[in-house]
């Protein structure tokens, strides 16, 4: 197709939106709608995480912290104070995540490489231990059940459409951000932090900014998940949750904006199919990612685009997102 | 607070510290020499514990040889992992991230393999004969097995220090930390060196796992718990700093032993608090010169 890129992207967006919008209409099973909802929320979480890693080059192993903050804000306020508090709880969750990510961010961005990764992991594990031990507030390892959103939102189909709208809007915002001058600075930080300083931009300031922004969207994903599953548990803050979004990003491809979202789709569908057949799901996904890391570091989306451009005899590679 | 209680906690913290150090020294060795961050190091600890169980409890080999066999087996698996997988991503952009990711995959794979082979219930190894009782010093009872662990730990520290600083093999290992290219020009087989060092480091981890098995029961998730503690030790001491890891381990072991005694409910938090405080105030480690901060 020789349409201008603008239209091509518009087409893809509409197609994606349409697919997810049709899910509740075509499939009568509540289970499948729930699965699609999970894909949307995890997709948002993974895309927001990849703004940190794929775009800025900051591998955080602790985004579960903010995911958990979002989930527990909604869970606690809705069950303890009242269902009407769903939207205020969402706001409070985002505000808490912003505050904590600002404080934690100020500390962690002083570190680079492995140290950054480990410090984010340590903070998330700290929060996980607090959640686990503070039984009076969080219910410990029982988690919180019976989180029913108020009014129309209690209807699963309606809630699904709200999730769809929020997720697509958030991803659109993140995409605009990734291709804005701010996004360009972030990519520069990954490639050559020294030159970012030369052109008069602050590396730390921009790293902090994207850390807070990414954490905000992670919290939003957590809050949406709490309402969708009606239950939350401390494992949402465990380090494997942070690991999950890393796996999704690599699976889809970290150098493409939509890579993590595609990764989320593939991972959740695979988990649904294979997890039903065997309890040894981790070994399957571990081996798949191992092969991808070694042989196809571009991920599913990257390899597909590469093949497509080879197929068209196009020698010039598109610039990485 | 009586003296006997404090002393007992001190000794228990010290033997915990020795186990932490043995495991962390493998982690710091491979980071110091090869700049490889082995997130799966705890999994080799777990593998060692299971190999130890298999060799001593199932096949009936005596305890001490079983420990060595378990360490060697874990080392072989480690070398194979490095040779087959890790080696293929050296020098790639984003290498640090991909190392963490690749070793994360190894955690997932080894955890499940262990579950497939040995099942998910608890396993344990009996303490070796002759180390079942306790020594009494005044009012203080010290289990002899804990003393044995401390002795083994000291022995390994001394041996490792001697090898690293006094032998040709140690010089090569240290040189490959400084400049791999020049080392290659001097006729040293650098990839082989890295594989061997990786094997030794994971063997240390495996041996520690088998050594710890009589004290803590062996479970498939054990690798995850130990890796975070080892990380904290390494961070306290400074990455790649052998002696620093020794002090870091003692600090963490004692903090843990006393936290368990005084605030058992919240004891699991203390390791993280120590790590966070260290990384905030001394990110290069407590015992490292400041210039390597941005390593």
What features would you describe in this structure?
The complex is a heterodimer of chains A (321) and B (295). With 321 residues, chain A is an all-alpha fold. Chain A is built from 14 helices and no strands. Chain B is mainly alpha-helical and 295 residues long. Chain B has one domain (3-294): ABC transporter involved in vitamin B12 uptake, BtuC, CATH 1.10.3470. Helix content of chain B is 72%, strand content 3%. Chain B has helices spanning 3-34, 41-58, 63-84, 95-118, 144-166, 168-178, 180-185, 190-212, 222-237, 242-262, 267-281; strands spanning 134-137, 140-143. In chain B, strand 1 (134-137) and strand 2 form a beta hairpin. In chain B, helix 2 (41-58) runs antiparallel to helix 3 (63-84) and helix 9 (222-237) runs parallel beside helix 11 (267-281). Chain B is globular and about 60 Å long. Chain B starts with a helix and ends in a 14-residue tail after the last helix. Residues 290-295 of chain B have low confidence and may be disordered. The chains are: A mainly alpha (321), B mainly alpha (295). Chain A binds chain B through residues 53, 57, 59, 61, 107, 110-115, 117-119, 121-123, 125-126, 129-130, 133, 239, 243, 246-247, 250, 254, 280, 282-283, 285-287, 289-290, 293-294, 297, and chain B through 31, 37, 85, 88-89, 92, 94, 96-98, 100-102, 104-109, 111-113, 115-116, 224, 228, 231-232, 235, 239, 265-266, 268-269, 272-273, 275-276, 279-280, 283, 294-295.
